[in-house]
Amino acid sequence: MPPKKRHKAKQRDFVVFEHPFSQVPHDILIKGLIEAGKSSQEEFPLQLAAIINLIRSVNPLQAIATLSAYRLTMSVTDTGRMRPLHKNRKFNQSHIERLQAISLQIRIDELSPTPPPSETIQKLFDTLPDLGDSFRLQRMAVLEQERNAEQKSVGLLQEHLRLHTQGVRNWGYFKKVVRLARRLCDTTGPLFQKHPGITAKDLVNLFEFLMERLESLMTARMHEFREIFSEKTSEKIIQKYYALNPKFKDTGAELIQFIKSKNLSSEQIKFLILSHSELTLADDLTFSPHELSQHLNLPTDSLSRALDKLSLSFGDLANLKADFFFLDNPVWRKPIIKLSDTSYFCAMPQVFFSFIFQILEKILDGDELARSSYHARKAEFLESEIAELFGRAFPGCTLVQNYKWLNDRKEYENDLLVRVDSHLLLVEVKSGLISWPALRGAPERAKRHVEELLLAPSDQSYRLATQIAEVIKTPDLSDTLLPNFPIPLTQVTTILRLSVTLEDFAVLQSNLHLVKQAGWVAEDYPLSTSILLADLEIVFDVLESTAQKIHYLKRRTELEANMIHLGDEMDLLGFYLASGFNIGNAEFDGARLQLTGMSRIIDQYFSALDIDIQKTKPRLKLSQWWADICNKLEKVQFPTWSEVANIPLSFSFPEQQRAEKAFKKIKKHVFKNWRNNNHLCSITIIPNMRRSDALGLFAFRDRDNKHRHKRMKNIAGQMFKNAHVQRCVILGVNIDEGHYPYSTLAIFLRGEENFAKGETLVTYG
Fold first, then answer.
1. Within 13 Å of residue 96, how many CA atoms lie on the same side as its CB?
2. What's the pLDDT tens digit per position in 553-609?
3. CA of 444: how far to CAs of 165, 329, 448, 449, 484, in Å?
4. 400 burial class (0-12, 13-18, 19+ CB within 10 angstroms)?
5. Contact residues for 85 (Cβ-Cβ < 8 A; gap 6+)
6. What is the DSSP letter of 491?
7. Which site in 239, 386, 434, 718 is 20 to 30 Å from 481, CA atoms measured?
8. pTM
9. What is the DSSP letter of 504?
10. Contact, 57 vs 119, CB < 8 A?
């Protein structure tokens, strides 16, 4: 029987709207962009000079600490909703990284001791994002130059890489990134130890500790202010503030007298105390190697070497041009500021995890033997991680690693074969490093990385998929094309190809149309889907059922081939949860989907988990009946069940609702009119012309059970009158027995004479 209670997940519907510039004539749009570019070329040096003068006029450590505290720290509600303490949404980690680099141009004898007033902090909050916008927009002036179509497309790809390098930092959710980094570094053993003084795993522990230390400090400050501001009078607020800060040299009497003389409001008093507390922020973020050694149980001298390896001192960047810091910031590789041999400052320990792969490579500079060993271990790590991930994601599946095969007398090796029911997944993995020139948009280097990390694994899986398809079609070719193939192919009907990378290539792996538009691969070439390891873990975590995981990977490949979309993998996953990738003809009519922001529900969930707040996991938007149908199919697991489960998943939520509503009427009609041979007993859902799988919902009474297969065959015959329908699944419900979610199921394939043939495969009970 159906469950009495049905819980509907609260989730935002997918909404399509037209881009505001889509109706602007192309020549006018280009002219506007050129003007914006020229204007930014004039504004950029002025804005940069103003920020340099601003940071030189105050104590830079206090300014960096304050910006970090207020922008990179979130307030969290009991439900896990997070809000930055500063309201400028454009302000992010990259702006503080840039300010830190500019500050490190100041020589030690030029440092100002002046604490930054609130006006200066606010100005930095406002102008640093404007500076970043100007740096980006000034490149629009290049549109004035004559360029052919290929040059324009390459320029678009370059801009994509530069924008990502300039402002995007997260390649995964923090705790998952830390766990992944620790597992990788654990495989390197003492390989790094002779360079920074401690192992790579120790480095992960060090920066995780600095991150936890920063979070604890900021949490303690917020609790302290909550306690202080709970006092009822101005005098008690100040007394509480000083009582909780016994290190202050004065007693607060002068401040109380000042407040009384100025007749300050409670809001002004709170602002005054917050500003005063900022004076100690830089001290809070300063530490010594001895302090760290006590917490990490590592030798002080080893930690000193490691900190020196990953730090810069004031004046170290004095000879560099500040406009280089947007696309090649030394702070990315060395996020710590060294103040003395026993004193270090770090306001952004998360930078280490944002750039961990580049940092580890930099540490091994000049040691080619160690570098080669690290690359080999990294490749082995990725292959092992992928095999374990698929093993967890698809319990009971068949996994085979490192199958060797021949093509044109050349031997190839597949990284992982995964068979799930009738689906065979060909997985190729790439652990190569993304170089800085490529991330800065250097076309030749970027093209080389595209060929190595995206095209080469796709080529390899395509060759193997082609040979497997030939063997499935003609089994007698097995010994010739696939000798000793480790997985039986008799039940395989669908081959899926997937490439997995360890390092984020500016989310280019999620936007492969940019590669095709640049002419680096043929427009009609069947590129395999490419997903970052950290993202694939999230996909498999969120999509708990096997059917949904298979459907996501399958439809993800089709979507990549059929339309242009912009967004990272989490945006695509959010889009899938909202729509199931079921968007009808929009997939084929040339629409370009801007998906940025679709990941919000996923971001909120995993960000809450990072701070140990449990929220309801985001789920694919399905009606309860539809979800239960898919769950039943997965539980029964008859041959090709995964193919069958893909069919109901390929209809949108509104289609599910309409079908369920119509079927309720059908059941009532059958109950009254079942004796009539021509009674209405079903509804059918016919896909759009680009899809070939149809679904039928059939109601019958127990007393008419003997006619059910004939009726189901007739229903299939009606569906096959639609020429594009090649297969249909019919779910039968015995309305007397009340079986839920269905009683029987039949699969029909189009026959040679355009008529249905098939058999009932599953019967309830």
1. 26
2. 999 999 988 888 888 999 999 999 999 999 988 888 887 888 988 999 999 999 888
3. 17, 21, 6, 9, 40
4. middle
5. 69, 70, 71, 73, 74, 75
6. T
7. 386
8. 0.90
9. -
10. no
